[in-house]
Amino acid sequence: MWLLQLGIAVIHGRPFHPQTQGKDERFHRTLEADLLARYDWRDLAQAKLRFEQYRHLYNHDRPHEALSPEVPAARYQPSTRSLPALLPKIEYEPGTLVRRVKSKGEITFANRFYYIGEAFHGHALALRPTAKDGAYRVCFGAIPLGAIDLTAPNERPKGNYFPLFSYQP
Predict the structure, then answer these.
(1) How far does CA 29 lie from the centroid of its chain?
(2) Residues 92-101: what's their mean pLDDT?
(3) What are the tens digits of pLDDT across the range 47-65?
(4) Distance CA 126, CA 93 (A)
C-alpha cells in the first residue's frame, strides 16, 4: 500500500511461470545453499545475526556473475528522489464513482460484492467507466487494479465475491 500511495505500480510475474521471476528464483537458490541449508537456528536472535552477516557477504564480498563479476555494493547508487515525510492523500475528481474498501477487503457495487484485498481496508477506490457498457476500471489513485464487468453472469459465485477481471485498455 505504501508503494501504491507513492504512485509506484507493483508488477507481478505470470502465475505458475517462475521463469519470469528468474532473479528472485536464483537468489532463493543461493540463499538456500549458502545459508539456510548450513545452519540450524537456536532462536530468532541467532537467525537475525546470521542473516545480517549473510547480507553483508552477499552485497559486499561475494562477486556476482551477472555483474561481471563485481559485488552489488559496487553498483549501488542511492536514488535521487527522497521519500516524502507524509504519504500523499489519494483524492479523486468530483463526480468520480468512489467505493471505500470494507474491513474484509471487499467493496460493493451494483448489489454485488467484489474482493479487492484486505490491504486496501479503509482506502477509497475509483470506479471509472470504460468504453464497454457495464464495465468499470477499479483504480487506486491512477493505478488500475482490475475491472468489474456487470454484464458477466449474475449467479452467486463461490465465496460470495464476484471476480475482478484483468484490465485491458
Answers:
(1) 22
(2) 95
(3) 999 999 999 999 999 998 8
(4) 10
Bridge partners, residue 111, by sequence: none
Query: Is 82 strand, coil or helix?
Result: coil
Backbone angles phi, psi at 58, to 5 degrees: -65, -40
Residues above pLDDT 70, as percent of the chain? 93
The cell for 165 is: 477481471
User: What are the DSSP calls for 4-61, one per residue?
Assistant: HHTT-----PPTT-GGGGHHHHHHHHHHIIIIITT---SSHHHHHHHHHHHHHIIIII
Of 21-25, 123-127, 140-144, the least confident: 21-25
152 within 8 A of 162, measured Cβ to Cβ: yes
Provide the pLDDT for residue 81.
84
Q: Show the cell assigned to 82.
A: 527522497
Closest CA to 135 of 149, 154, 116, 114: 149
